[in-house]
Every structure is written in structure tokens, then in C-alpha cells.
Amino acid sequence: MTRFQARTLLVVVLAAASLGLLAFGGSPLLAPLRAAVQGPLAAVQRAVAEAWRGVAPQPAQPAPEAEALAARVAELEAEIARLQAENIQLKEKESELRILSGLVEYARSQPEAKYLTANLIGQDTSPLLTYLIFDRGSDDGVIRGMPVVTGDGLVGRVVEVSPGACKVQPITDPASAIAARLQTSRDQGIVQGQLGGGLEMRFITQQTRLEPGEVVLTSGLGGAYPPGIVIGRVAGVQQLNYEVLQRAELIPAVDPTRLEIVLIITNFTPADLSPFFQATPTAAPAPAAP
Q: What is the pLDDT of residues 207-232, one digit of tens each?
């Protein structure tokens, strides 16, 4: 019998003895046998337990290098978050600088006017009313009727004023009507706001040749706006042979839904032409001769 076979036989015998002790361990007849076998069984159990501890996987203990690496990763993640927040702030400042640069360029191109910057702080949520609210009011010298512009063109005019704020009616409001002029032909018409934020130029003669992209400016007629402010560009023409006049769809130069900072023209006072359109009083009849 080889050494391996002898060891195997010993393990089998001890295992059988263990099972016997478990089954009949409570019998007093087997007490001498139990005392004789417990010693070798305990030795075998200890040997098996030590061998198992040698081959069984042990819980991994974090090495000092791993702890340092985890701390460095956390530090880098915090730095990335800080840089991302800083990048967002820089982009906001860049956008604000671009807007302000456009306003400055516009003010330089129209040096005869005086301006006051205003920030958008609210707007009407009604689908039919599109009024805008800015953070300048009567305390800043703002009065009703003052035009509001950006570097791209006309926004609208002030219609209500409080001490610290003003309400502006944009040119895209359906109740807005502006005397306008085509830049190329110099023909005139009325630009009216449309539901949905569009513009339409009306009362254009059929003889006027309209081209997409032509610039439309304020004419100054009626005294509500200064002349020469960009309103928009021609996008399409509606011309019917049986009509005396034609219409043009315009793309607004300024999108009122994307406003942030504007210029209020403070040295323009709208002209009051109402006295010229009142009915002339009928002259009193001359007294009859005696």
C-alpha cells in the first residue's frame, strides 16, 4: 500500500468515526471509543482548518498607494467640477459682453440720441399680450412713449411707467402699428405685429417692387418713433392682381423672446398729433341783421 493510499484510508476511517460519534455520541457504551478517537480527530480538524486558511481567499486590505490614489481622484473630480462652474460663468460674461458691445456700437452710430440701458426683469405670460418689463422707471427719467432698441434694431416703445420699472410694447404685438419705409425704393407702409411674433407691412402700392431681404426702417411719420431704425427684412410678398395694394411678410430684426439688455432712447419725445385730427368746430352762425 502506498503512502497516499494509507493517508486516504486514514481520512476515510476518521471520517466514518466522526459520523459514528455524531450519530451515537450520546450512548454511554461508546464513551471509551469516543475518548480514544477525539484526540486524533481534533488534530485532523486543526490540520484541515489551517490548510483551508492557507488556500481560502482573504479580504483584500487597501494598500497605502490605493488610498492615496483614491484621494487624488476625489481631488481631481472636485477640481473638474470647479472648472466647469467657472467655464459656465465665463460663457455668461462673454454673452453679456457681446450684447453690450452691440449696444455700444449702436449708440456710436446714432450719437445724436441719449440712451439708458435697461435689463429685462419680466414679461406678460398671456398668449395675446406680449409686453416686456425692464428695470428702469420714472426715477431714472423714463417716460411713456420712449423708443426701445438694441444693436440689431427696434424693440418697441414704453407704454407704462412706475418709479422703478417700465412696461414695453414690442413691435410684434398685434396692437402695434409703425409707420415704415423700404430702404431701397423709399416707399412707405404700415408695419403691424402678428399673432405668433411675426410682422406684416401693409398698404404698399402694387407698383413697388419688393425683394426678399430688403431692409425696412421706421419712417418717422406720425411722430411715434425716430426715423431710420431697423424694423426687419422682407421675407415674402403677398401680391394679388385684383387688389390695389400688396403686403409683405417681415422677419423682425429683434427677437423679443431673446432679449436681455436694451437701450431706451431718453431724449426722444413722441409728437402729439391728436389736435390736428380733431373735427374742426363748426363756426357759429352770424347774427341776423336787425
A: 888 889 999 999 999 999 999 999 99
DSSP string for residues in 5-52: HHHHHHHHHHHHHHHHHHHHTT-GGGHHHHHHHHHHHHHHHHHHHHHH
Q: Is 207 helix (H, G, I), strand (E, B) or coil?
A: coil
Question: Among all chains, which residue has been given the C-alpha cell 449702436?
Answer: 106
Where residue 54 falls among pLDDT bands split at 50, 70, 90?
low
What is the C-alpha radius of gyration for the chain, rounded to an integer number of angstroms? 46
pLDDT above 70 covers a percentage of the chain that reads 72
pTM of the model: 0.66
- Compute CA distances 17 → 22, 48, 51, whole Å: 9, 16, 21
Biggest CA pair distance of the chain:
170
Mean pLDDT of 35-41: 61
pLDDT band at 27 (very low <50, low <70, confident <90, very high): low
Sign of torsion, CA 165 170 175 179? Answer: positive
Do the beta carbons of residue 159 and residue 169 sit within 8 Å?
Answer: yes
* Domain boundary assignment for the chain: 9-24+32-48, 71-171+255-270, 173-253
Select 71-171+255-270's CATH number: 3.50.50.60, 3.90.600.10, 3.30.470.10, 2.40.10.340: 2.40.10.340
Pairing of strands 261-265, 115-123: antiparallel
Number of H helices, E strands in the chain: 3, 12
CATH architecture of the domain with range 173-253: Beta Barrel (2.40)
Fold match flag (71-171+255-270 vs 173-253):
yes
